[in-house]
Amino acid sequence: MIQVKPKFWSYFVRSSTLSFFKEGRKTKHYSLWDSLHGYVYGRWPYLYIGIGTGEHWLARAFRPIVQSFSRIFAWFNLDGRTEQASMDINTGTDRPTTFADTYHGKVMPLESATELIAVGEEIRITDLEKVIPYTRARDIILHNPDHIVALECPCRASRQDPCLPMDVCLIVGEPFAAFVSEHHPRRSRRISVDQAVEILRKEDQRGHVHHAFFKDAMLGRFYAICNCCSCCCGAIQAHRRGTPMLASSGYRSFVDEGLCIGCGECERFCQFGALSSDGYVAVVDETACMGCGVCVSKCEQEALALVRDGHKGMPLEIRHLLDHASRPLYPSERGLRQTG
Fold first, then answer.
1. Into how many domains does the chain fold?
2. Does 90 fall in a domain?
3. Which of 129, 165, 199, 211 has its CA at a distance of 20 to 30 angstroms from the CA of residue 29?
């Protein structure tokens, strides 16, 4: 039997790193620059996110340099891609490509997040423009979707007094799960689908929001579900400051004034500041509402519900998307999905 000797670099580079770069070579429009950026992001996420949130001392000491590199990451391409116009997710008008187009999250109610984490099959759905309204990083390509790693949240880790527990970032599928597990063995753990669902459920009980995250440097696709709070999450804070890093779930909260008693419990839990009271009932700021559903689960009067809002894009409901992927694409659905 012939034995093939491993290539020399396999003695110095971890197998998950080789798998990541190999997948990058197979990914359309994914350059060497993207591969290196993705490696840095995955290898040193606590430094990367700490600088991004401004909590790390390097960000405070070298803020002008960090801001310059942020602009470079957003605008400079080594693979020849040209900048495109992107639809503003709040106004519906075209805007230039920005940092948010390269790194963003999709808000998901608990049911949708659970459906995605427990999908149980390999998936390739690309170019989800109407679901992920950004010019880049809008594919769902899942290999080994039952390979899930719970990682200590880099956003929470960067804060002096973080929300607990820490290990609530769910890295889903390969090559991401193996990369994170191999490079961060002390801050991550392999978990089952059932354990991941339980993390989602408990975070929902704490009033935290589920985001499916996409990043151009992470092979331009979905790679994680994070469970976020406004006090720790850099993406929520950036979004509330005007950087549209988060896309609505496609729903918004609706108040049944006949049932609402104006207790203010929903307002206390809203991570986006979208709920207030007029003294009698809850009032929804429809622009600020991201349709996460936290308020619905917290209302003991059952006065709140999520309703579809066509101005907020299509929901990320994986079973619905797979149903569309299994039949011919009609012209009116162009931009909803492509499969390959």
1. 2
2. yes
3. 211
Question: Closest Cα to residue 190, out of 201, 204, 174?
Answer: 174
Question: How many angstroms separate the CA atoms of 159 and 161, rounded?
Answer: 6
Task: Look up the domain containing 180 and give its range.
Answer: 18-249+312-330
The answer to whether residues 203 and 286 belong to one domain is: no
Q: For residues 234 and 290, state if they share a domain.
A: no
Quickly count: other Cβ atoms within 10 Å of residue 15's Cβ: 13
Residue-wise pLDDT tens digits, 141-162:
999 999 999 999 999 999 999 9
pLDDT in tens, 231-286: 999 999 999 999 999 999 999 999 999 999 999 999 999 999 999 998 899 999 99
Contact (CB, 8 A) for 229 and 87:
no
User: Is residue 338 situated within a structural domain?
Assistant: no
> Quick check: helix, strand or coil at residue 132?
coil
CA dihedral 85, 220, 101, 94 (to 10 degrees): 20
Q: Are residues 244 and 293 in the same domain?
A: no
**What gap in Å lies between CA 8 and CA 140, rounded to an integer?**
33
Q: Give yes or no for a contact between 198 and 255, defined as CB atoms under 8 angstroms apart.
A: no
Query: Which of 246, 225, 122 is closest to 171 using CA atoms?
Result: 225
